[in-house]
Amino acid sequence: MVHPQRTCSHMELLPLVCLCLLSCSGTTSADPAGTVVVEKGSDVILPCSNNGVNLETESFDWTKGQMKVFSYAVGQHSNKGKTGQAEQFRGRVSHFEEELKHGNASIKITNATMADSGDYTCDFPGVHPARKSDVKLVVGAAPEPCVKTVFQTETLAVLQCKAHGVPDLEVHWQDSDGNKLPAEEPQVTERGGLSYITLKTTVTKTDNFSCVATQKNISHRISSEINIKIDEPDNTGWIVAVVFIILFVAYGAVVGVVLYKRIQKHKRDMKQLKDGATEKLSDGARP
Ligand SMILES: *[C@@H]1O[C@H](CO)[C@@H](O)[C@H](O)[C@H]1NC(C)=O
Ligand SMILES: *[C@@H]1O[C@H](CO)[C@@H](O)[C@H](O)[C@H]1NC(C)=O
Ligand SMILES: *[C@@H]1O[C@H](CO)[C@@H](O)[C@H](O)[C@H]1NC(C)=O
Ligand SMILES: *[C@@H]1O[C@H](CO)[C@@H](O)[C@H](O)[C@H]1NC(C)=O
């Protein structure tokens, strides 16, 4: 039997496709407290607005601690001659020109790196009293885990899940009812500020199993599903045998009845014949 398997390779080899899928499915999230959580390598929008006041002829500055992230002042900005932008952000930050008239001072940072994580401030220097807003950026949200079958026999399958994200990452396997499955000890490695977790479990039933990656301190949870078909104990041979036996017995019964009837009829015929002969004999023997 052929079992559908999802492989990891497409996730690992085509990060751009993954990025697109993720930005389309909206992994980026800004919670009410102003925290934006994204995967490493994705593009992120940091929100800021000045309550609908047209900003085309105003100015705003984005900073991260002492670093200048992006500045705008009456048509001049960091990508158009305005100096002072930190090296880390050069060529990676843009504003939304068409949104300025609606008071929207949001910026987009491309290809987010772990170093981009931190607290950002959006400031309108021309506005009195000073208006500022803060956004916390967390880079390192776990992307969809990679799940696959690494071993399968007729009675069991060994499933593997690979996930990565900032170090509070927790990974577990569950069945379609949400029951957590016992798993082997996870293999954890840390690299470039991210932890990489591989978790294997053994399943013995047909079901859709999910690997769930959770990052509690950034309120992030993401999962991948895999459909596993385990061949149930093979009953078809028995069923066929039983059906054959029933048919055979039924056939035997029918044949038996027919034969019995024939024999009975034959016996009756013989008896009549015999009786007739006896009568004739006794007639003839009569004096
Ligand atoms: C500002 O513009 C960005 C990019 O178009 C958009 O995602 C965001 O929702 C806008 N914010 C507001 C408050 O309109
Ligand atoms: C994103 O940044 C990383 C590290 O800075 C770099 O290796 C990679 O090539 C960049 N990707 C894109 C699409 O620019
Ligand atoms: C979440 O917790 C881990 C481990 O406690 C820590 O390394 C990480 O920086 C935390 N992330 C945030 C955004 O607080
Ligand atoms: C597994 O998921 C598929 C759709 O992906 C669904 O058709 C099927 O009924 C599910 N099976 C179980 C056992 O939940």
UniProtKB/TrEMBL annotation:
Keyword annotations of the record: Immunoglobulin domain, Membrane, Signal, Transmembrane, Transmembrane helix
Domain Ig-like: 15-122, 143-227
Residues in the signal sequence: 1-30
Gene3D superfamilies: Immunoglobulins
PROSITE patterns (alphabetical): IG_LIKE (PS50835)
Transmembrane portions of the chain: 238-260
InterPro entries, alphabetized: Ig-like_dom, Ig-like_dom_sf, Ig-like_fold, Ig_sub, Ig_V-set, IgSF_BTN/MOG, Immunoglobulin_dom
SUPFAM superfamilies (alphabetical): Immunoglobulin (SSF48726)
GO molecular function, one term: signaling receptor binding
Name of protein: Ig-like domain-containing protein
